[in-house]
Automatic annotation (TrEMBL):
Catalytic activity line of the entry: propanoyl-CoA + hydrogencarbonate + ATP = (S)-methylmalonyl-CoA + ADP + phosphate + H(+)
Record-given protein name: propionyl-CoA carboxylase
Domain of life: Eukaryota
GO molecular function terms noted in the UniProt entry: propionyl-CoA carboxylase activity
Keywords from the UniProt entry: Biotin, Lipid degradation, Lipid metabolism, Magnesium, Manganese
Enzyme Commission numbers on file: 6.4.1.3
Entry's Gene Ontology BP terms: lipid catabolic process
Residue stretches making up the Lipoyl-binding domain: 56-131
Entries under Pfam families matching the protein: Biotin_lipoyl, PCC_BT
Organism (species): Medioppia subpectinata
Length: 131
């Protein structure tokens, strides 16, 4: 299939989207400003079913710190009850002879610490929880 282009204007700014490919199921590859996007366009009947299906609420993971990889806990630099700030280092994990500093993604109070120095942890294991 030859590439097609769509030119459109938003607030008098001209934009160009290139259609790279499309299949019979509505899946398309588009390029916009150098970035390729994969999208899926659904028939109207299918889209109506999606309106009827309730969305599962996504769990709030901002209050948990998980291990990004299996490794050895080298240090824990906080205690239960401590107030921590976004970006603050709270734990160091060693994996493949590299030390990885783990930081909290949000400010809060330490609710639980599920590891200690010397522990071996698994990938995605919850290490620290915030209130």
């Amino acid at each position: 299939m030859a590439s097609s282009a769509l030119e459109f204007s938003i607030n008098n700014d001209l934009h160009l989207i290139q259609l790279i490919s499309i299949d019979g199921t509505g899946r398309m590859r588009l390029q916009y400003e150098g970035t390729i996007y994969n999208i899926h366009v659904m028939p109207e009947k299918v889209a109506k079913y999606y309106e009827l299906i309730p969305n599962k609420p996504k769990p709030d993971v901002s209050k948990t710190l998980r291990s990004p990889m299996p490794g050895l806990v080298k240090s824990v630099s906080c205690s239960v009850g401590d107030l921590v700030s976004e970006g603050q280092e709270v734990c160091v994990i060693e994996a493949m002879k590299m030390q990885n500093s783990l930081t909290v993604s949000t400010s809060g109070k330490i609710k639980a610490i599920n590891c200690k120095s010397g522990d071996t942890v698994d990938d995605e294991q919850i290490l620290i929880q915030l209130e």
